[in-house]
Design brief:
The protein has 583 residues and is mainly alpha-helical. It is built from 20 helices and 5 strands. The protein has a 3-stranded antiparallel β-sheet with strand order 3-4-5, sandwiched between helices. Strands 1-2 form a two-stranded antiparallel sheet. It is elongated, with a radius of gyration of 26 Å. InterPro entries: Fun_TF, Transcr_Regulatory_Proteins, Zn2-C6_fun-type_DNA-bd_sf, Zn2Cys6_DnaBD. This is Zn(2)-C6 fungal-type domain-containing protein.
């Protein structure tokens, strides 16, 4: 892994910890200690005995859960580095671990990851960096806006988070250079680094780390096959870490499609749908959702190559197989819910997880239904599923809302993002569609690698374009009928705006039907350089080397020319993130 160390935005260098945190031997010799654990490089290279002060708060060897009294004071008011590290870890253990991994993986994030800190300084630094960034998102100043727009000063706590992250990255780089990297630890730090970059709003860097993580998974599986990895870690790898990457692959859209086949290679046993708890239900559905994404990709490619309205019979048969598997999952899941209800009322976390699983199941059904045709109107068959997504996401968001009314900023678990995103783009029933956009506004600020504010902005843009197209089409057809009845030509010219401001009462009621030619699609996630013209987008995406690349959506739509009353197919690009400020 080689992520770039992040430093505070205004040029303050990230300084190493002072030697008072070094080993006893280096202190006695009055030399700078590199603080490597369990033995520093200076002592190891000279054959000296290396010892550290026992279990002082904030050292990597004291990563057991500290007293929660540390949370009584803000991170920025902590008196020194050791205390700030200890408090950040307390905040992680008490408030972050549950959210970053979700309730179904709480043992992994609350138990195993903190234990890994004991002998892995890079893991400790990454954890406390995540903790500080989580707390930053809970405060009015938002690090995402700082990173992207460079308009606000970095606070003390944000500076700590960036310094700890830089220290963690440096430690991993040193181990890589020495050839001392344990692949399992490397993969674990990669997961943590993805979280750090995402919390900073650095989506491109997070995606790069995600790709590197996929390479580490491939290498680690080779080690497991040759018996080089302890059985306990091999089980943890497949049961906890690989599912994280599968879930990230689903929300990364096209970014992970080429590697997804290899990622799913050992997950076939999960498709039996004999799960007995919510965690296994999630894993089975996640694998099915990932396979559906690959199937959708094949359908889109076949439709584009053939310029046909529907896919081949072979793909229709594969679709039928997916429907059977989705039905089997649904039957087993309903039995599981019945057994949970039989034990008593569901807990808050069970309510959240159940609602999210139902929403994701409905989303997978929708995607399986609509991907076999190039007609956008095929999604009208799924109104029942769209409404179910609204109901279940409302339930999940209400249950996960914190006392101050906000949502946790980030999670590696499934969330409302994908179901609401699909609904806001593919459902043309105005009431359901607007409900999806409104729920996206209430969603956690970060969904996978992307920001919910960007998703809301794009969904609203597409909705307004389609509804404006529909209004213009109806007006044109009405005028044509008048002309035909009168036997003459009308001199009326309807106006058309690319981003119209629609009246929200009568106009919305009149938009209950959006004809096929007014609909926008397909929509694809792409990357292009800032400021590049849309016509050059394909070349920019192919290069994938620019540091000024931004993620955006490429889509096709029909555009009306009011001068001659004709429609042409146009291809457009809309960035999902604001441009980064020049440095």
């Amino acid at each position: 892994m080689s992520p770039k160390p992040t430093s505070p935005s205004h040029g303050n260098p990230v300084l190493p910890l002072r030697s008072r945190l070094g080993c006893k031997t280096c202190k006695i010799r009055r030399v700078k200690c590199g603080q490597e654990k369990p033995n520093c490089v200076r002592c190891s290279s000279t054959g000296r005995k290396c010892e550290y002060v026992k279990a002082t708060a904030g050292t990597f060897s004291s990563a057991s859960p500290p007293s929660t009294t540390a949370l009584d004071h803000p991170l920025s008011s902590a008196p020194n580095t050791v205390w700030r590290e200890r408090r950040a870890f307390a905040y992680y253990f008490e408030r972050v671990a549950l959210f970053v991994g979700g309730d179904l993986d709480v043992d992994f994030w609350s138990s195993f990851v903190p234990q890994l800190c004991h002998g892995e300084p890079a893991v400790w630094d990454a954890i406390i960096s995540i903790s500080a960034l989580f707390e930053t998102h809970d405060q009015p100043s938002n690090l995402v806006s700082i990173q992207l727009l460079n308009q606000s000063p970095v606070t003390h706590s944000q500076g700590d988070a960036l310094a700890w992250y830089s220290r963690s990255v440096s430690a991993m780089r040193q181990r890589i250079e020495r050839g001392q990297v344990d692949l399992f630890v490397g993969l674990m730090t990669c997961v943590l680094f993805i979280c750090v970059e995402t919390l900073q709003g650095r989506e491109k860097e997070a995606l790069q780390l995600f790709s590197q993580g996929l390479q580490l998974i491939h290498a680690l599986r080779a080690q497991i096959a040759s018996g080089m990895v302890p059985a306990a870690r091999a089980i943890l790898f497949e049961d906890a870490i690989v599912p994280i990457f599968i879930r990230l692959a689903v929300v990364s859209f096209n970014e992970a499609a080429p590697q997804l086949d290899n990622l799913l290679r050992t997950r076939a046993h999960i498709s039996s749908f004999d799960f007995t708890n919510l965690r296994y239900a999630r894993e089975a559905l996640t694998v099915l959702g990932a396979e559906t994404m690959l199937f959708e990709r094949r359908c889109v490619e076949q439709l584009a190559q053939s310029n046909a309205v529907y896919v081949t019979q072979e793909l229709f048969e594969q679709q039928a197989s997916f429907f059977q598997r989705l039905q089997a999952w649904d039957i087993t899941f309903k039995k599981l819910l019945d057994s949970l209800f039989a034990r008593g009322p569901l807990s808050q976390q069970q309510v959240i997880n159940s609602a999210l699983l139902i929403a994701h199941h409905k989303t997978t059904v929708i995607l399986t239904t609509i991907c076999v045709s190039s007609l956008q109107s095929i999604s009208d068959q799924c109104l029942e599923e769209f409404q179910a997504i609204i109901d279940q996401c409302t339930l999940a968001l209400n249950a996960s809302r914190r006392p101050d009314g906000t949502q946790p900023p980030f999670t590696f678990d499934i969330g409302v993002g994908v179901p609401l995103w699909v609904t806001s783009l593919r459902c043309r029933e105005p009431r359901i569609r607007r409900a999806a956009v409104d729920l996206l506004r209430r969603a956690p600020p970060l969904m996978g690698f992307y920001r919910s504010t960007s998703a809301v902005s794009f969904a609203e843009h597409i909705m307004m374009l389609e509804e404006a197209n529909a209004m213009a089409l109806r007006r044109t057809r009405r005028e044509n009928l008048v002309e035909a009845a009168a036997g003459g030509k009308s001199d009326k010219q309807g106006s058309y705006y690319d981003t119209p401001q629609l009246e929200m009462d009568g106009a919305v009621m009149a938009l209950a039907e959006i004809p096929e030619e007014a609909r926008i699609g397909p929509i694809n996630v792409v990357r292009q350089d800032e400021g590049s013209p849309t016509t050059m987008m394909e070349e920019r995406v192919a290069s994938c080397n620019s540091s000024r690349e931004v993620t955006g959506m490429r889509f096709s739509r029909n555009q009306r020319d009011p001068a001659n009353n004709t429609w042409t197919r146009v291809h457009e690009y809309l960035p999902l993130e604001p441009p980064r400020a020049e440095r």
